[in-house]
Amino acid sequence: MWMRLRRIVAMTRFDPEHFPSVSDFFIEDEEETATCRDMADEARTYIERFKWCESIMRIAVGFCYPGVVAAFAFRVESSNPTVPPWVWVVVGDLPSAYFDAEEAPAPVDALRRYIGIMGRWIDAVRGKEPFDDNVAPVDVPPTEEWAANLEKRLDFLEREIMPELSESA
């Protein structure tokens, strides 16, 4: 499954004009393509819930492993000057998160950044660092059970997905 999907992550630097749009995105399998488009809808719903996101101008696919994890680049409009023009949104079988695309110019960097963000949350849950502005909010209770579940998922991403993205970068 993973080798066949590697073609969708051909871009190595953040250049959203070269990423496929969600409507143009297609994997060889229609069901997997539909799953990735559903994940894009999930990412859109997630980002639109923030007041600073006044409108979405474009959605580009960074990578998608159907039902597991995907990263979409969103071109957003906001009257808030601190909001970056492009943000990555990572969704999947794990908590969603967004961050400035400039912090992660390539899809592999977006996954690496996501793993770091969620790792800080796990550390905060375990008392290794305080819950402050450096820890992203996560839509699950801050319990050891959730931290352990998320840690397993992050380990899987590092072990199985990260090498695939790194090879295509």
Mind sketching the topology for me?
Blueprint: H1 2-5, H2 30-48, E1 55-65, E2 69-77, E3 86-92, E4 97-100, H3 107-125, H4 144-168
Antiparallel strand pairs: 1-2, 2-3, 3-4
Structure overview:
With 169 residues, this protein is of the alpha+beta class. It has one domain (2-168). It has helices spanning 2-5, 30-48, 107-125, 144-168; strands spanning 55-65, 69-77, 86-92, 97-100. It has a four-stranded antiparallel β-sheet. A hairpin with a 4-residue loop joins strand 3 and strand 4. Helix 3 runs antiparallel to helix 4. The two termini are 19 Å apart.
Helical region count?
4
What order do the strands of the largest sheet run in, or round the barrel if closed? Answer: 1-2-3-4
Q: Please summarize the sheet with the most strands.
A: 4 strands, antiparallel
- In whole angstroms, the N-to-C terminal distance is 19 Å
**How many structural domains?**
1
Structural class: alpha+beta
